[in-house]
Specification:
Helix content is 14%, strand content 46%. By secondary structure, it is mainly beta. It has a 6-stranded antiparallel β-barrel with strand order 4-5-6-9-8-7. It has a two-stranded antiparallel ribbon with strand order 1-2. β7 and β8 form a beta hairpin.
Length: 167
């Protein structure tokens, strides 16, 4: 039996899901939360099909997501032609407690482009901790166009901004 139900004597399951609510995040709060974690998932197209890879990231200037790429990795194929703003990708990061199911999730959709400046790429190589022991071939910069997110909260909790306003 999962944690959100109990089995009754007649074999049917009674829902005992704790009262939760989903609160939408604004762009600034969503990007601030992404900056608090170092791992996420990039969604991209590979051979005309959706592909997802876990990657580490950093957030620069409050809204630019930087991830590392490897020469032989699938993400190395995301280099866009010079006459387009980049390759469309989605990036998702979250922190959701496996027991309480409380936490947050953010999805950023935008254009990924190769970091062309060697000095910048070297700086990112120092800042980004690799997930696997492969040399970094470069970095991708994701410029968000659409940022969506939500927080799963226990019913009766207030957003921090509302709580500060009532003191």
């Amino acid at each position: 039996m999962d944690q959100d139900g109990t089995q009754r004597a007649d074999g049917r399951v009674r829902d005992t899901t704790p009262a939760r609510r989903m609160r939408e995040l604004d762009r600034a709060e969503a990007l601030r939360l992404v900056a608090t974690v170092s791992l996420g998932r990039i969604v991209f197209t590979q051979h005309a099909l959706p592909a997802v890879r876990p990657v580490n990231h950093l957030v620069e200037d409050g809204d630019i997501i930087i991830i590392r790429i490897h020469d032989d990795g699938a993400l190395a194929s995301l280099v866009a032609p010079a006459d387009v703003p980049g390759v469309v990708v989605a990036y998702e990061a979250d922190v959701i407690d496996p027991d309480t199911h409380l936490g947050w999730s953010v999805v950023v959709t935008g254009y990924a482009s190769l970091v062309a400046d060697a000095g910048e790429a070297d700086r990112y190589a120092e800042l980004l901790r690799p997930c696997v022991a492969q040399p970094m071939a470069g970095a991708l910069r994701i410029r968000p166009d659409l940022v969506t997110g939500f927080r799963l909260e226990a019913e009766g909790t207030r957003p921090a901004s509302a709580a500060r306003g009532r003191s």
